[in-house]
Design a protein that fits this description.
Blueprint lengths: L1 H25 L1 H20 L17 H24 L2 H6 L1 H11 L15 H15 L6 H21 L6 H5 L4 H7 L5 E5 L1 H6 L37 E5 L4 H4 L8 H20 L4 H16 L17 E2 L4 E2 L2 H33 L4 H6 L3 H22 L7 H25 L5 H13 L2 H13 L1
Antiparallel strand pairs: 1-2, 3-4
Helix pairs in contact: 2-5, 3-16, 5-7, 6-12, 12-14, 12-16, 12-19, 13-14, 14-18, 16-17, 17-18
Length: 463
């Protein structure tokens, strides 16, 4: 009876999801209305606070628009958008994202030029993510509204310019240049909800059916996963072959086609999310960063070299807010770059080295790149732990009881490590190699994640 009840429940949920997808396809005007409401809210919190004086005394975040915008953008928006990628796929991109809506709007009214070859380079998601993340740390994008306006607003303006020049009603920016695209593509592969394509039904349908206006430029007939799909629902029901449905959260990673295993995406996962992002989250809390800066400052003073100790950089290059006693010297900026760079090399390098050793042990050429995708759950947990740090800090300042947070962080880390370990084992399991080689290869890959786990334990429990 329990099995029958479970089957009925699953069937009911699948039917509900399919109906929801079809409703999204029919009611595009509703989704567009939601998008423009988000655009209005986004611009209101992005632009106006940048022209207000910074608070110099303690106030509740709900009493000050600057702090409220900070909490919405960095305490709610980013951490839970990342979480939504793992739970719902890229629904944020297709239904809510203001940049996506604006670049598509501009593209429908623009020049309609062909996408140039240089823009199709697969390394742009990694480069854009790295540059935006590092620059954001130099100007303290999480703390100050002018920096947020520069980074987020600059990205939005660039999205509209690209949309105006290239494509015809498409999201060229989102597909090729968006700084978050690479991370979203990786994390959305874990989502248990996806738009699935029935190949048999597709072939059986009439060939006179009009093509779907797919904004992120996906070949829907050949679509196999969530990584590029924006989950906007436009294609739901198309040719009676596309359905919003359920799947195992492991399915896409365990059946990833060879052509979707790319080294640039692995670089985004290993050196971006598990390297650059962790360094960006942790440098301000690290005693090692302080020790490095003090050591270099003492050496510069002994050398009578004071140029790097000056704090005359403009706010758009390095943090410069003397009214709240927050000013970066040139040395601060160099130390931030050095710390993030070193963190990236140590954490990412350790993982890549262990992946290579696992590949060597298995005797499977190229296996290291596929195995790297098994670390996606740990990457998702890691980025959520980092982004939610500000959420916890701001709520703690409101004297809310956050005693449950340390335990929750341990549980999330354990979940990320164990889930990743299981995925890596399943990927290796399919290879025709001896059991002990497969077991040792799995252990080697997971040994490579020890520095990542240790970095979070240091940040939240030891520093």
């Amino acid at each position: 009876m329990n099995e029958i009840a479970e089957q009925l429940g699953t069937t009911s949920l699948r039917t509900l999801l399919a109906a929801l997808g079809d409703a999204m396809a029919r009611h595009r005007a509703v989704i567009q209305g939601i998008q423009w409401l988000v655009v209005l809210f986004y611009f209101s919190l992005l632009i106006y606070p940048a022209f207000l004086p910074l608070p110099t005394e303690y106030v509740h975040f709900y009493e000050n628009l600057i702090l409220f915008a900070q909490f919405i953008f960095w305490g709610i928006w980013w951490p839970f958008v990342m979480l939504s990628m793992m739970l719902l796929g890229r629904v944020w991109c297709g239904v809510f994202c203001p940049e996506g809506a604006l670049t598509e709007w501009a593209s429908r009214r623009g020049l309609g030029r062909a996408i140039p070859r240089w823009m199709r380079w697969s390394g742009w998601p990694f480069v854009a993510f790295a540059m935006t993340t590092i620059y954001g740390q130099l100007v303290s994008v999480y703390e100050y509204p002018k920096a947020a306006l520069l980074v987020l607003g600059g990205s939005t303006v660039a999205a509209m310019i690209v949309g105006f020049i290239y494509g015809r009603g498409k999201r060229v920016w989102c597909r090729h240049l968006c700084p978050a695209n690479g991370v979203f593509a990786i994390l959305s592969r874990l989502a248990p909800i996806h738009l699935q394509v029935d190949r048999e039904a597709w072939r059986a349908a009439s060939h006179r059916i009009s093509a779907v206006d797919c904004a992120p430029l996906i070949n829907i007939r050949k679509m196999t996963g969530n990584s590029a799909c924006h989950m906007c629902g436009r294609c739901s029901g198309h040719r009676d072959a596309v359905t919003l449905g359920l799947r195992s959260p492991n399915q896409e990673l365990l059946t990833l086609p060879a052509h979707e295993v790319t080294r640039w995406e692995v670089a985004t996962l290993v050196f971006g999310v598990l390297g650059i992002a962790i360094g960006a989250f942790q440098w301000s809390a690290s005693p090692w960063f302080i020790a490095l800066k003090q050591l270099l400052a003492a050496w510069l003073i002994n050398q009578n070299a004071f140029v790097l100790l000056q704090d005359n950089a403009p706010w758009w290059l390095l943090t410069h807010y003397p009214e709240v006693n927050d000013v970066f010297s040139w040395l601060d900026g160099l130390c931030i770059l050095a710390y993030i760079g070193a963190t990236t090399l140590v954490l990412g390098g350790a993982i890549l080295a262990m992946l290579w050793l696992a590949q060597w042990l298995l005797g499977a050429q190229g296996a290291m790149w596929r195995l790297a995708y098994g670390l996606t759950p740990l990457a998702g947990v890691s980025v959520f732990l980092g982004l939610s740090g500000l959420t916890v800090s701001m709520l703690t300042a409101e004297h809310l009881n956050m005693n449950w947070v340390p335990g929750a962080r341990i549980v999330l880390l354990a979940l990320g490590v164990s889930w990743s370990g299981w995925l890596v084992w399943r990927m290796i399991e399919s290879l025709a190699t001896p059991f002990w080689n497969r077991l040792m290869a799995t252990l080697l890959v997971m040994v490579g994640t020890i520095p990542v786990v240790a970095s979070w334990l240091f940040m939240y429990f030891l520093w």
